[in-house]
């Protein structure tokens, strides 16, 4: 029986895998930097609009017994913020303008699905069980990423979507398995951080993971040529 291709199975790295990664990184780099930055700016325009103008009253997401297993850990804020670098890895390793456009459209579809939920089913997390304002950086976080627009967690959704695409690209360049495992650890750490800093509850994270997986699977099925040489 074949192993699922989404898991970091052992592969034999080719001698030129590092050269392949370098070439992918430098190809269209200025365009990638501008495009990713513009995409994030447009996303936040939509994000804050839905946050401030929901169609219906806000529903407070419940905590579960799983939330009690994740203690508040302020140092997780660094992991949480690493998403904004992480989401640039997959498009940063694409080779052609057409690939960047199509990948961007899939990422936009993912964010659009999240904003659809936020507008028609606005949600928020419960008040945190600790005074987060006592910790450095959290006041800025509350101003930039408020506790609304909770479910599904787009932080987790975009991380999972990215992780699946990064894994695909690592397989295409035949990078060592350690790189693929690092990718798995990174996405799991980001998902954990959303709960550890009380920006989301576990239900938000699970819904975000489901959304990210669904859109990544659909994009891989309909756009299997992205990332190939």
TrEMBL record:
The chain crosses the membrane at residues 29-48, 68-88, 100-121, 146-166, 178-195, 201-222. Signal peptide: none annotated. It holds the Pfam family PAP2. InterPro entries: PAP2/HPO, PAP2/HPO_sf. Residues 125-225 form the Phosphatidic acid phosphatase type 2/haloperoxidase domain. Gene3D superfamilies: Phosphatidic acid phosphatase type 2/haloperoxidase (1.20.144.10). It comes from the Bacteria. This is Phosphatase PAP2 family protein.
């Amino acid at each position: 029986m074949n192993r699922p291709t989404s898991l970091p199975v052992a592969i034999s790295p080719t001698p030129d895998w590092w050269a392949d990664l370098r070439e992918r990184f430098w190809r269209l780099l200025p365009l990638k930097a501008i495009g990713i930055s513009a995409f994030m700016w447009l996303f936040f325009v939509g994000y804050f609009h839905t946050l401030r103008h929901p169609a219906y009253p806000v529903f407070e997401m419940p905590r579960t017994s799983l939330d009690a297993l994740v203690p508040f850990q302020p140092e997780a804020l660094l992991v949480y913020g690493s998403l904004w670098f992480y989401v640039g890895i997959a498009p940063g390793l694409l080779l052609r303008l057409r690939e960047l456009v199509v990948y961007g459209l899939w990422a936009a579809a993912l964010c659009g699905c999240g904003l659809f939920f936020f507008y028609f089913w606005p949600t928020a997390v419960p008040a945190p069980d600790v005074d987060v304002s006592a910790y450095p950086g959290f006041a800025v976080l509350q101003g930039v990423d408020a506790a609304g627009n909770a479910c599904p967690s787009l932080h987790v959704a975009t991380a999972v979507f990215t992780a699946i695409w990064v894994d695909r690209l690592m397989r295409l360049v035949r990078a060592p398995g350690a790189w693929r495992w690092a990718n798995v650890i990174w996405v799991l750490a980001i998902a954990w951080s959303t709960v550890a800093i009380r920006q989301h509850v576990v239900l938000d994270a699970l819904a975000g993971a489901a959304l990210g997986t669904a859109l990544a699977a659909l994009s891989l099925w309909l756009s299997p040529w992205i990332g190939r040489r």
